[in-house]
From TrEMBL:
Keywords: DNA-binding, Phosphoprotein, Transcription, Transcription regulation. The keyword Acyltransferase does not apply. The modification 4-aspartylphosphate is found at D55. This is Response regulator transcription factor. Residues 4-122 form the Response regulatory domain. CDD domains: LuxR_C_like, REC_NarL-like. It comes from Streptomyces spirodelae. Residues 151-216 form the HTH luxR-type domain. The lineage of its organism: Bacteria, Bacillati, Actinomycetota, Actinomycetes, Kitasatosporales.
Length: 223
């Protein structure tokens, strides 16, 4: 079945451009559009999309609050949210990730990257491009812990290897890349990632990356 996508952006020309790109793919169907967060909520309930391509800055209700309502405990369907941001990275993106977004994408990303992001998010994975993630977190380094704060108690639940895996997830590495880095199988990495998410009460790899930075486990700019 085709991936059902809802386009949410207050600029009609951008929605048209995204629609043209996505409808050229046999496995993707654009089922609706919305010009603000309130319309998005109505459309999600009515159309039951798999993925919502969500702008951040919109009138009436912004993308952060809309994301929170779409993915929260009272959600009306299985929709995943992929956040759109400008080239200089919107200051609200971190809040959108905390609110439940499965990843983010630059508005000027190549068509192929947009299509791939839709497929990744629809499959239940997180869209964590290392270069974009690093730039985002470096940009807000001053708002993140200095590394001198005490380690959160929840972090002590992890084994030494799980901490290693969490650090690599925060750098944006895929399971295959983590497996190569740690000289273990990809299946083993998937198991470790699953344990990390369960122990820390996190939804996906995006939240794991944000947690790693917020807890001071990983510092912006570190390798």
């Amino acid at each position: 079945m085709a991936i059902r996508v809802l386009l949410v952006d207050d600029q009609p020309l951008l929605r048209t451009g995204f629609r043209m790109i996505l409808e050229a793919e046999q496995d993707i169907a654009v089922v609706g559009e919305a010009g603000d967060g309130l319309q998005a909520l109505d459309q999600v309930r009515a159309l039951q999309p798999d993925v919502v391509l969500m702008d951040i800055r919109m009138p009436r209700m912004d993308g952060v609050e809309a994301t929170r309502r779409i993915t929260g405990p009272a959600k009306d369907g299985p929709a995943k949210v992929l956040v759109l941001t400008t080239f200089d990275l919107d200051e609200y993106v971190v809040e959108a990730l905390r609110a439940g977004a499965s990843g983010f994408l630059l508005k000027d990303a190549p068509a192929g990257e947009l299509v791939q992001a839709i497929r990744v998010v629809a499959a239940g994975e997180a869209m964590l491009a290392p270069s974009i993630t690093r730039r985002l977190l470096d940009k807000y380094a001053g708002k993140l812990p200095s590394g001198e704060e005490p380690v959160p108690d929840t972090l002590h639940q992890l084994t030494e290897r799980e901490v290693e895996v969490l650090k690599l997830v925060a750098r944006g590495l895929s399971n295959a890349e983590i497996a190569a880095d740690l000289f273990v199988s990809e299946t083993t990495v998937k198991t470790h990632v699953g344990h990390v998410l369960t122990k820390l009460g996190l939804r996906d790899r995006v939240q794991a990356a944000v947690y790693a930075y917020e807890s001071g486990l990983v510092r912006p700019g570190s390798s």
